[in-house]
Amino acid sequence: MDRRSLLASGLFAGAFLASGQARADSAADIPHRFAAALSAADMQAFAALFADDYVNHQVSAAAPPPAGASQKQATVAFFTHRVDALAGLKVSIEASLSQGDLCAASFVYEGVHQAVYYGVAPTGRKLRFTSCDIFRIVDGKIAEHWGMGDIAGVLAQLKG
What is the pLDDT along the chain (160 residues), one digit of tens a residue? Predict the structure, then answer.
């Protein structure tokens, strides 16, 4: 199954499971704001995208959340580390969809490895990797997240 089919099937399946209160145009805008905030390294704008009671359904053994942190704090910390580790980080969108209070996007991340990342010392290599993410939006903020990141691809590039 290709990435666009996966995004579409997840988005439409999720639409039956979640009730929506946000306008569709608000949900559709979130991936663009997400990518723009990270590309600008504006972590304040990035943090503002998330509801205080945000729930992250993506659990990664490769990037465990800090002990005692809320899921919002853990997500902001994870992406702050990504911004710090990858010089000139640029985040773009390959494809995005929205329906009701749900939106999904396939993101591409590109940057130069300049600090310890996933336990690997800086290599100076240019990295390019992707993620697929589904967000449920409430009152214009990300309330829930489901996603998949290409951690194996990142590690392969880092260890080159």
Answer: 555 555 555 554 444 334 344 344 589 999 999 999 999 999 999 999 999 999 999 977 666 777 889 999 999 999 999 999 999 999 999 999 999 999 999 999 999 999 999 999 999 999 999 999 999 999 999 999 999 999 999 999 999 8
- Torsion sign, CA atoms 123, 128, 132, 133: positive
CA angle 85, 90, 96 (to 5 degrees): 125
Strand order across the beta sheet in which 50-56 lies? 50-56, 141-149, 126-138, 102-113, 86-99
Residue for token pair 């993506």: 58
Alpha helices in the chain (DSSP H): 3-17, 24-39, 43-48, 71-85, 151-159
Q: Give the closest residue to 154 by CA, choosing from 93, 87, 96, 108.
A: 108
Q: How far apart are CA 50 and CA 55, in angstroms?
A: 9
Continuous segment of H or E residues that includes residue 101: none
